[in-house]
Amino acid sequence: MFTPAVNKRTTTTTFRPSNSPPLKSKDHVQRPPPIKLSKSDERFVKGLAKISLERNQKNGTKAVNSPSRPDHAPSDGEVQPDLDPDPQGDLVLIISHGQLSHQYRVSTTKLTSTSSYFSTLLSGRFGESEKVQQAHIGLLKTYARVADAPKSELPTIKIEDLGRISAVKSIATLCADFLSILHEKSLLSNAPSVAMLANLAIVADRFDALENVKSYMKRKRILQAIDGKTTAKAENVFTEEKLRQRVLVATLLDHPPWMEKYTGRMICKGLVDHHETPGNSALWWDLPSSIEDELAFRRACVLETIQSIPIYFIGLYTGSGRQQCWLGYDNSLQCDSFQLGEMIRFFSRASMISIRGMISGDPDEEPPPGFEGDVLNLLDRLKNVSEYQIDRNHSHCGIRTRLIPIVDLLTICLAHVGICGECWSNRRFEHSWMDAKRPLLWKRADTRVPVPHSHEGWHACVRNIFTASTRDWS
Question: Fewest Cβ atoms closer than 10 Å to its Cβ: which of 59, 227, 335, 415?
Fold first, then answer.
């Protein structure tokens, strides 16, 4: 049988055998050998421990050796010294965005050397600059250095509006990360999310400090680390917002791999329509640098190119005046008629053409809406075409033999319809599809894909395919 011994000072329950000798002094404690408890004794011990825990909770006593926790998380308006980029700074920035606000102790030297906005504000002819200088002169009368002054006595400058960031519960960490980069320190988070990086880029653009943030991201290889953790399966289910966030990060922070990859996804998936975005929406819903217009134009060109395929093949059988069956059998004309009928039925079922009357039209009838889904699904539909034949002697008279190579060509080209970040930054006019002169005729027979050892040549090849006025798929 075991007798519990309760230490009243620490409210910690210990157990020792009732027949064990009394404990000696603290320096000569002899611990008893471990004793194996029976099941009944274990239940007794657990019950007593539970009673002791409930007593502590009732009396408001914290458990021994448990880390203390604050009763509440600090709000945005509270001072958090650990978020100050420079604990010995000479200025306090009070940054507010909507109803959120936070203050930071910063160095005017760091701010003016890394941001044109702060350089103009603190070193120019604005009243804030003179205010800060006079405050520093007054502090030097009391302290040997301005850095020795407490935060409460430093001059303050209020800044409102962080730009078109997304709705956030707190701006404390976001602003602390931005100011930390300007002070040549690391981010608070070792694994920032893409949404956080997008907001950080917006803030950096707002205060004209993008170059420093770009250098930090490249030096720390943060975007490459995100790529390493992103699986292909996760990329396939990215929402429109996640794609747009990556495009904005690529645009503002100069990361070309994301630019071409994710703008291409947006074009193929049809996520390029212009929506009426409210003024308080995040910047990635209205991409800057004319990217929205360029994406919408490229999407329209891609759909027009795919639409030209059924029109081309139907035209071969109805308007060319040439017989398509070259076998020379007596039923070759019937073979062409059979192929034309099967072709029209296939394209109609694939929702790529529709038959409408032209003698009389309904003025109130609206044209059918354009395709809004993934264009890769359209190409998959074309791959399902059968090798139609009127009899066993006409084994290769259908369009499948000629259609599949065209689909394969477009599949390769669609992987490169995105905006090249490098070309968009350095040669936007030459790279833009909107500003390019559309070729009158594009011939498949004259095209070699891929274009070897030519970055600009590859862009020109893809652009000519999708922007040509007329296409010869033969």
Answer: 59
